[in-house]
Amino acid sequence: MKQIVTLFKKEFTELFRTGKATVLLIVFVIFGVMNPALAKLTPWMLNLMSSSLSDAGITIGNITVDAMTAWTQYFKNLFMEYILVLALFCGTLTNECQSGTLVNLLAKGLPRWKVVAVKFLSALAVWSVCYWLTFAVTFGYSAYFWDNSIVSNLGLAAFSSYLLGVWLLALILMFSSFLRSGMYVLLATGAVYGVSAALGALPALAPYLPARLDGAFGLLTGALAPGDFTASLIITAALSVLALAISIAGFQRKQL
Predict the structure, then answer these.
(1) Cβ count within 10 A of residue 248
(2) What pTM was estimated for this model as a whole?
(3) CA distance 175 to 172
(4) What is the mean pLDDT of each run of 10 residues along the chain (256 residues)?
(5) 122: Cα separation from own chain's centroid
């Protein structure tokens, strides 16, 4: 247990010492504020542009914004949030393997599985705090300006998007256990997600793929029902655990 606590201290000290965690927190708070802010400012911005647009023959009618407008922006920004977190952690294991900082620890008897577990849990903690912080800020401002009750299945939609991020982090760690470059890890993770998204175009496979969770916005509009995500949620969680298990097995055999 003492070794795990020491590793956690090392991980978070590095994250805050380099400023990565601080920057990520600030950016995610900005995302949370932007979602309702852009929705609130949209009618004002369109009114400013109305005269120039009317000269071009474009007429703008009455624009109505509500909580759904803010949550639409929230789910649009998720792709960028995934990219930021994956870019931050794609080198979490490969960089230490290249620099040799783990050699001394492992030589002193530190089990390799503990390294993998702490790396994943540290990344998961950062992702969880940042993601739910953005959600809370968006929820708070949307409740203040409008009424969140008009949005259906918001909790399930948010959790689905969160779980997709967990799976992507598990993939990052899995590929880090085999590859030696953070860039290759990021590309491999993107490729797996791309294959999942491409297979999602097949109606027979779509309900079972992790990429289905990327369409969680459909729960808010009623285009999709909660039951449409049951299989995908279970399979994505199972694939995350499997990726973590493969990470441990791969790192056990990795030459440092």
Answers:
(1) 19
(2) 0.90
(3) 5
(4) 79 83 90 84 59 53 76 92 92 76 72 87 94 95 89 94 96 90 91 93 91 92 91 97 93 75
(5) 14
